[in-house]
Amino acid sequence: MRAGVAVLAVIAILLSIWRLEAGRQGLTIAPFAIPDGPPATIYLALGAGPAPVVVVAHGFAGSRPLMEPFALALAHAGYVVVSFDFMGHGRNPRPMTGDVTTINGTTRLLQDELRRVAEAALAHPRADGRLAYLGHSMASDIIIRAAEDTPPVQAVVAVSAFSQAVTRESPPNLLLISGEWEGMLRDEALRMVRLTDPGAAEGQLVGAVAEGTARQAIFAPKVEHVGVLYAPSALDAATRWLDATFARGGAQPAQARGGWILLLLAGITAVAWPLARALPAERGPPSAPLPRRIFLIVALFPAVVVPLVLAPFDIRLLPVLVADYLALHFAAYGALTLLLLARAGRLVGQFPARVWPLAGLVAVVALAGFGLALDRYVANFLPHPGRVAVIAGLALGAVPYFLGDALLTEAGRAPLWRVLVVRGAFLLSLLLAVALNFDRLMFLLIILPVILLFYLLFGTMAGWIGRRTGLAAVAGLGFGLVLAWSLGVTFPMFA
């Protein structure tokens, strides 16, 4: 059975890579040097002539790979596409600066960075002098505001948009795309369209494309804030909108990449099962589970106490937005959990000598397997030197937290209800922290999907490893390092 699972997993991995790489066929994809500008990538269709430039910008905690579905679709349609990493994001070593609470602070600096990218892209030999912007979430406000400045812009595609800068006249030819499950952002998109026509409905085109006054708010079905970036309907709508603006045509339907990415991640996860079965087997009988009363105390007490204790403090330990708080929340949560487990006598015998090399092996294999796939197809996963200290700081919190999680879930043996209580309690503790200090910690809400994905993928693998070895600490230590790395490359750097 182990060999059969391994074969199926490898087939899933190879098939998904083949399909994802097919989306790059027919294009030249290369680094794009910008003097005094951010790291960027240019996408060009082979054999195409001069064409309008589309600058693609990611949202908060995003990076170039996250926006690649749009970059590929537009490049296949013949556009000169340039995608880049905003300051503090991805592989951009320059941290975000300025006041994030004012329009003339960080927002203005991000606009300046976008403008430098646009000017460099317009100087490319394949550029025909015309320009459009496409941006997601945070970047939607940046591109809408930048459209009021030079260089002149002919169209704007704002995905999951929010902005107070839209007027009846600006920006020109504005398409607003939201996910069906983004209720508040769909309302915001409709509000912007109704500045031109108060009676406009969702999906209705108002204004005239030829005059640059067009407005439309649409939604991609059955997706949310990130899924909208992979929705073929969203990709096709953006291409058609720009084709109408620039009087072009002939674009092919966009490739559905999201499903192949999920298959790739599922295949990599599945490979972990036969690899886990190759680890040394458990020695001796498993320990008895914690009594229900003690389990509930250990699982729930930190969830309430930690956010209440940390709420009064303005924590600034790391040069990363809200990650300093998250690192301390992890550390306090993990330390309190481990203390309660120690009092219950559950740390004795959990750290034999073989734990440490096995935990290191788990971390290296997981980082290599998922890191390469995520970095190429999903989001930046390889840190620049400035992020090493951030990863180390997060590890001081993530390792004790995930170690406590692994012990409470009994090395993968705990009933499902106990697993849900343990992990649900932690997520609720983060939500409580945000509620107690929304203005400072609201960005933690953006990171919750990352933690949920981590639970789904790495929690599954942790169970396989724990059940095989009988050592919860192997998965706790190994995947604690992986969690620190994952979050350390995600949060924006901020000076």
Automatic annotation (TrEMBL):
The entry's protein name is Alpha/beta fold hydrolase
Question: One Pfam family from the UniProt entry?
Answer: Hydrolase_4
Q: Tell me one GO molecular function of this protein.
A: hydrolase activity
Sequence ranges assigned to domain Serine aminopeptidase S33 in this UniProt record? 50-168
Q: Which residues cross the membrane?
A: 258-275, 295-313, 325-343, 355-374, 386-404, 416-435, 441-458, 470-494
Could you tell me which species this protein originates from?
Paragemmobacter ruber
**Keyword set for this entry?**
Hydrolase, Membrane, Transmembrane, Transmembrane helix
